[in-house]
Amino acid sequence: MDRGTIVRGALEILDEGGLESLSMRSLGRHLGYEAMALYRHVDGREGILEAVVDHLLATLELPSATGSWEDYLRGFADAMRGLAHRHPQAFPLVATTHPAAPWLCPPLRSLALVDQFFVDLRTLGWDRESSVEAYQAFAGFLLGFLLMETARLGVGTAPPDVPLDEGGPDDPRGRDRGLDLTAYPTLVDLRPLLEGDRCEEEFLAGTESLLERLRRIERSPV
Q1: By mean pLDDT, which of 59-73, 95-109, 143-157, 174-188 is the weakest?
Q2: 86, 69 Cβ separation under 8 angstroms
Q3: What is the CA radius of gyration of the chain?
Q4: 36-50, 73-87, 116-130, 152-166: which range is least confident on average?
Q5: Statement: residue 23 has pLDDT above 70
Q6: Mean pLDDT, residues 13-30
Q7: Lowest-pLDDT range, 15-29, 87-101, 173-187?
Q8: Alpha-helix residue ranges (DSSP H) falling in 42-198
Q9: Closest CA to 166 of 42, 47, 59, 39
């Protein structure tokens, strides 16, 4: 038994029975081990849930940044939606657990994934400021739509009932906690922009975009 086996077993339980069905005991039974043996590899149920989220995002197949930026974002959205469709019981974990840093936006919540997203957007011609705006708007759309879609399948979308202890925006633990960004130079460069509070601006811009779409629908012939 190793950590990978435990994470895959936990995902199997989540896929079959949802978050409430996963406990250290149920996972031990599923794998054929005593629950206490699992603690040699993971830090309890909390650690398992975080590892499942990391595993799901690590398996996401991202599009290549060789065409247009529209094709790239369309492919990225399709990949994230495909993940939600394959694992609807587990996807709310991706969307509702604290991200790796408080200035990241779920469901695009891992350092490696977001760093690659920015590298690709920069390759496709986006500058620093516009790429951060695109990331925040794109993540907000994915979060709202995919949670709504999984909820329509009858999946609970409440956060897990364990403290994930990343800290909040006013908690020093949530700011740094020894976060090592050495491998992610693009995030180091963009972090000051990502830490800015653009919620009001994003909400107003998103509302106007929605209203413009509704105007087109209202003007369309029946």
Answers
A1: 174-188
A2: no
A3: 19
A4: 152-166
A5: yes
A6: 94
A7: 173-187
A8: 44-58, 69-86, 91-96, 111-123, 128-152, 172-175, 185-194
A9: 47
CA-to-CA distance for 58 and 99, rounded, in angstroms?
14
β-bridge partners, 108: 105
In a domain, 78, yes or no: yes
d(CA 34, CA 23): 12
Please tell me the distance from the alpha carbon of residue 118 to that of residue 125, in angstroms, as a whole number. Answer: 11
First to last CA, the chain: 60
Question: 138, 108 in Cβ contact below 8 A?
Answer: yes
Closest CA to 185 of 111, 130, 133, 121: 111
Q: What is the tally of structural domains in the chain?
A: 1
Domain with 187, as residue range(s), is 62-219
Q: Is residue 108 part of a domain?
A: yes
pTM: 0.85
- Please check the confidence at residue 171 and state whether its pLDDT lies above 50: no
List, as one string, the DSSP characters of 71-99: HHHHHHHHHHHHHHHH-TTTHHHHHHS--
CATH number of 156's domain:
1.10.357
Angstrom distance (rounded) from CA 27 to CA 33: 8
> The dihedral of CA 101, 103, 108, 113: what is its sign?
negative
Amino acid (one-letter) located at 104 = L
Q: Are 146 and 80 spatial neighbours (Cβ–Cβ below 8 Å)?
A: yes
Q: Give domain status of residue 130, yes or no.
A: yes
DSSP 65: T
As given in the structure block, the two tokens for residue 39 are 């603690």
